[in-house]
Amino acid sequence: MEIDKSLVSGSMGLLVLKLLEDGDKYGYQMIDELKRRSDDTFHLKAGSLYPLLHGLEEKGYVTAYEREAAAGKPRRYYHLTKEGGAALRRKEERWNTYARAVGRVLKGGACFG
Amino acid sequence: MADTMRAYLDTVQEQIRWRRARPVVVRELEQHLTDQRDAFRAEGHDPEAAERLAVEEMGDPVEVGTELDRVHRPKPQWQLLAATLALALLGGLLRMWFTFSGMEYYDGYIYGRMIRTAIALVEGTVCLLGAYFLDYTWLTRHARWGCAAALVLGILSLEFSPYMNNTSYFTRYVVLLYPTVYAVWLYHCRGKRWKGFLLAVLGGVPLTVIGCLAPYTMGVLLLLMTGFVLLLTAAGADWFGVGKKRTAAAALGLTGVIAGGVVWHVCKSGWCQERLRMFLHPELDPLGSGYQAVWVRKALSVSQWLGEGSWSEAGSPYPYEWTVPAWDSDFLLTTVVYKLGWLPFLLLVLAVAGLLAWLLRKCLRQKNQAGRLVALSVIVPLALQVIFSVMQNLGYVLFSVSMPLVTGNLLTVVTMGLIGLALSVFREDCIPWEDHGEMEPPSQVRLRFQNEKDVQSGSHVIGVSLIVSRKGTNERQASSL
Q1: Are residues B414 and B471 in the same domain?
Q2: What is the ipTM of this complex?
Q3: Which of B15, B30, B189, B422 could form a disulfide linkage to B200, CB 3.0–4.6 angstroms apart?
Q4: Taking CB atoms and an 8 Å limit, are B432 and A46 in contact across chains?
Q5: Residue of chain B whose alpha carbon sits nearest to that of A46
Q6: Could you tell me if residue A67 is inside a domain?
Q7: Could you give the number of structural domains in chain B?
Q8: Which residues on chain B are in Cβ contact (under 8 Å) with A63?
Q9: B184 at the A interface (CB within 8 A)?
Q10: 8 Å CB contact of B57 and A48
């Protein structure tokens, strides 16, 4: 299922950081795993991923290094830093609050005076 | 690479205005495109369709390039540049003011001295900005030539420079560049395992020898101390590829041996013992080796918190300017205490120390290891000079040393140039060039043919391997048929 772009763009940083929580990955791997873990819901364009990753690197949330991937091809791997881990927890918390609030409204539980 | 992919990458990189950031970004996108193309081919698409689809998957090249352009921009260091200029200007003005106020004690043409200080400030600003806009990676990319040029410069200065106080005048300033030259040399030795470590250590020898021939004891001390800091930093990043702990142990072992040698030399050498004795108790020889320190201590004892001290209480029959040697150069800080007070002295020292702490903070946040080492090679010697200079100006004289940015015209020019180099590292922090840029061109390309027996069919096959090896790494890219 394709999702409205505006819904995805705001949370992409959270998703990318979450992917790196399990271990270091390179860009192509991230897109592949995101697709798999979201049952093909999130189809992130590579052209959006790299500016996002470079921005996270700039903020110190991830670091990058080059290593040989399978078949001896050199790939640029990204690693979640301590600051990145803390940012991930903050983003997760905010997201959960937001998602719970949206959920309550959609179920009709919210009361607008 | 196919035209479709090349055209896509060309369009992306055209959007990135900072040319130096382009190669790394394009390389990563190229790797991604290759993976995507191979995946489409594995799904059964023909090569052309696979490439077209891979390019489509990437998204609009202009949008992608524009987004990347936003991330990859130089980080201007205007505040640090302004702070450096302000301190150099303050130092220059202090020197000019003291020269002017003490004009009756100078033999030569006083305005000539002041003009030289003004010219040094202009030259220093040119060096600061020149080094700031310099692509410092050029130094690391041409490490061998850079080091050879620095050695030749040292030898030429030894040969042709005039001697002042039994020291080759210009060699002193060349030696101040050597910690950075050594950082560049260390970079050149990376990835070469123990051979690299040995080369790194040996590379410091000719630099130290030139310092000893000058002879410039303080310069040699700065070079040795900074060299070990740099070697340990390189060990921490496992630059030689033999393991962090092993390299650190070797570096510490070497430090121990050299420190032991220095201690042994101090114990055996009468000159060193005398220096040490005068460092602690200059009053034992007030008219000889302890003269400078004795009068500095007396000047400090009659100083006030704010305002000029009362020289008459110091017990000298001559004015301050005739009594305290080098009052307007190496002992300029003592003059600040005596003529302006302890408070201005403390503020001045804190300002210089604050600038260095600011530089160090930026340096430790550097992602780029080569950049961090180059910046460290500038900051550590400057910090050591500040420490030794403050000690000297408080009456604990060990070797002749000047306060960076405050004392000396030529020293100010050299210091500003070096700080400019450190700032150029910080300016280019956002380029993730290290992994790519460090890669050497292939040093060996071999084509290997092998007669192999197929295990399943039992028939013989010819194996062809193309092996590309890069100097200093164990990486091997091989393809076989």
Answers
A1: no
A2: 0.84
A3: B189
A4: no
A5: B58
A6: yes
A7: 3
A8: 367
A9: no
A10: no
- B243 and B351 assigned to the same domain: yes
Task: Find chain B residues with C-beta within 8 A of A76's C-beta.
Answer: 27-28, 31, 435
Q: How far is B309 from chain A (nearest CA, A)?
A: 51
Residue A66: list chain B partners with CB under 8 A.
435-436
Number of Cβ pairs closer than 8 Å across A and B?
Answer: 68
Contact B432 A54 (CB under 8 A): yes
CA of A27 vs chain B CAs: smallest distance (Å): 7
Distance CA B154, CA B172 (A): 9
The boundaries of the domain holding residue B472 are 441-481
Clarify whether residues B391 and B478 are in a common domain: no
User: How is residue B136 written in tokens?
Assistant: 């410092």
**Closest Cα in chain A to B37:** A28
Domain extent for A11: 5-106
Is residue B35 located within the same domain as residue B57? Answer: yes
| pLDDT tens digit at each of 481 positions of chain B | 568 899 999 999 999 988 888 888 898 999 999 999 999 999 999 999 999 999 998 889 999 999 899 888 888 999 999 999 999 999 999 999 988 887 777 666 778 888 999 999 999 999 999 999 988 888 888 899 999 999 999 999 999 999 988 889 999 999 999 999 999 999 999 888 999 999 999 999 999 999 999 999 899 999 999 999 999 999 888 888 888 899 999 989 988 898 888 888 877 878 788 888 888 888 888 888 889 899 999 999 999 999 999 988 888 888 898 888 888 889 999 999 999 999 999 999 999 999 999 999 999 988 778 899 999 999 999 999 999 999 999 999 988 899 999 999 999 999 999 999 999 999 987 655 444 444 344 445 555 555 555 444 555 655 555 544 444 333 333 333 3
CATH number of the CATH domain containing A67: 1.10.10.10
Angle at B469 between CA B466 and CA B473, to 5 degrees: 150
Nearest to B35 among A28, A55, A65 (CB): A28
Contacts of B447 (CB under 8 A, 6+ apart): B464, B465, B466, B467
What b/e sequence results for A55-86 when a residue is b if at least 16 CB atoms lie within 10 Å of its CB, and e otherwise? Answer: bbbbeebbbbebeebeeeebbbbbebbeebee
Q: Do A27 and B71 touch (CB under 8 A)?
A: no
